[in-house]
Amino acid sequence: MPKEKKPFKMPHTFVIIISIILFVTAMTWLIPAGEYVRYKNAAGIEVIDPTQFSFVERTPVNPLRIPLYIVEAICKRISLMLVILFSGGAFALISKSGALHAAVAKVAKLFKDRLYVFIPIMTTVFALICTTQGVNQFIAFAPIVVMITMAMGLDSIVGAAIILLGGCVGFSTGTLNPSTTLVAQEIAELPPYSGISYRIVCFAVFLIVTNIYLIRYATKIRRDPTLSPMYELDKDNEMKHLDMDSFGALTLRKGLIVAALAAALALMVYGGIKFSWDMEELAAVFIGLAVVVGFLAGETPSSMSVIFIDGCKKMLTAALIIGLATAIANVMTAGHIVDTVIYGLSSVMSYAPKFLVAPVMYLVNTLISFVIVSGSGMASAVMPITAPLGDLLGLTRQTTVLIFNFSDGFTNYILPHSTALMGIISAVNIPYDRWMKFMWKLFVIWMVICCIMVYGAQMMHYA
Predict the structure, then answer these.
(1) Dist CA 131 CA 120 (whole Å)
(2) Which of 360, 376, 424, 434 is most buried, by the most CB atoms less than 10 A from its CB?
(3) What letter would DSSP give residue 352?
């Protein structure tokens, strides 16, 4: 009898990222090296002089140096990796206490039959926070949200999507974001946060469309769980077999632990906005939260340490993926091909029909965002080119900033080297291929809406 064929399995995320690193390394041997002349503007931001590009001698990356680039990338991202590790330790203590389980029971019971209310509330909360913050800070919270959706009879993708899609809308529309919008507007010589009214309209449009997509998916999965890309994997998730009464009562001790968690989250958001806290401060907050929760839960210092370390171990994969993903940009920079790619893509713009300049510029910027995943880094590299190019092609500089926001933001939720995406789906054990089965249609919808919104900005001379 012929052997039964085994179903194709997507390679592990580590294999995917290493493959991309090897591919980029090969490109440093094939693509001509190039450089733009860079200078610091009045705000002290290093920008590109769009008139000063030249090809330079190739500096192909030696494949034997790839391990060194990976180590350097991990060192560069160590503060973010510590946030992820320490958050895992803190949430292990919270989970051990049963406090979140009890709180989840109340939330799940309240909204179990009203997904059309629950999902928009949750996504809107994350969207509003991410108008000023990055989605990265929620990597540690993903298991908790997945816990809620699993208890409601949904799958783990819905839990991850509530954070990723809500945060994506807030971040990508650039309403108040200091690391993208402010940098881009400074380079384009625009007043800070000018043009906010149209960005608010974009925020509302994307939030409505995204919620409709997610509610439809959640409703479909509730009717037939086998339609979920995560059906087989979620069957082994312990939350799949919990009922609403298995979480326990919300006692005073558990209530204090939940309050401590809420206070820590509020402190991180307030510190990030008010005092410009970076990853180091967020990591420190998680250590403090772990200590407070441990004592509230009645743990001894020894047991507290054991639980904390076990929690850190569970987040190690997510932390390492972020470090590996950063190595891709390091290799491209060492090979001097980043500017060459930007130069080639931006040259295409001169051939676009005038009435489609804005959508074409968005598509070109989207291709560039596959190479540069840092928002501030992409702003510094692209805006000095697109701002004056927009002047020549009849686009307002506010439109070029909007194009940058859309192209930089939305791609972060499909790229296998995006720290926000890979960190969150790794934290909740969703393989990249399963996420893309859910995500690809929404990304196409997002791209269509982006083209429509930037076309509208072009037609109304958005300023």
Answers:
(1) 16
(2) 424
(3) S
Of 434, 445, 372, nearest to 408 by C-alpha is 372
Does residue 3 carry a pLDDT above 50?
no
d(CA 421, CA 414): 7
**Who's near 70: CB < 8 A, 6+ residues apart?**
21, 323, 324, 327
What counts of helices (H) and strands (E) characterise the chain? 20, 2
pLDDT over threshold 50, residue 10: no
Q: CA-to-CA distance for 277 and 394, rounded, in angstroms?
A: 39
* Residue pair 276/132 in contact by the 8 Å Cβ criterion: no
Amino acid at 207: L
Q: Are 248 and 101 in contact (CB under 8 A)?
A: yes
- DSSP helix/strand/coil, 136: helix
Return the biggest CA–CA distance within the chain: 75
Q: How many CB atoms lie within 10 A of CB 362?
A: 22
- In the beta sheet, which residues pair with residue 49? 37
Question: What would the pLDDT profile of 110-130 be if each residue is shown by its tens digit?
Answer: 777 788 888 898 888 889 878
Strands (E) across 299-445 are located at none
Residue among 203, 101, 285, 221 at smallest CA distance from 453: 203
Instruction: Provide the 3-class DSSP secondary structure of residue 243.
Output: coil
What is this structure's pTM? Answer: 0.70
Inter-residue contact 179 to 134 (CB < 8 Å): yes
Q: What is the DSSP string of 257-282?
A: HHHHHHHHHHHHHHHHHHS---HHHH
Q: Which residues of 310-338 are buried (b: 16+ CB within 10 A; e: fewer)?
A: ebbebbebbbbbbbbbbbbbbbbbbbbbb
8 A C-beta contact, residue 457 and residue 398: yes
* Cα–Cα dist 319/66, whole Å: 19
Alpha-carbon gap, residue 300 to 93, rounded angstroms: 12
What are the structure tokens assigned to 8, written together? Answer: 């194709």
> How large is the average pLDDT for residues 24-38?
89
Using CA atoms, how far apart are residues 335 and 106, in angstroms rounded to an integer?
54
The set of residues, in sequence order, having a beta carbon less than 8 Å from that of 423 and lying 6+ positions away, is 84, 136, 139, 318, 321, 322
Residues 172-197 have pLDDT tens digits of: 998 877 778 877 888 888 888 788 89
Nearest to 332 by CA among 372, 378, 383, 368: 372
Q: Which tokens hold the place of 427?
A: 């934290």
Q: Which residue has 């403090």 as its token pair?
A: 288
**Cα gap 160→152, rounded to integer Å:** 14
State residue 94's pLDDT score: 85
Q: What is the pLDDT of residue 304?
A: 93
| CA 282 – CA 82 distance, rounded (Å) | 9
User: CA 20 to CA 8: how far, in whole Å?
Assistant: 20
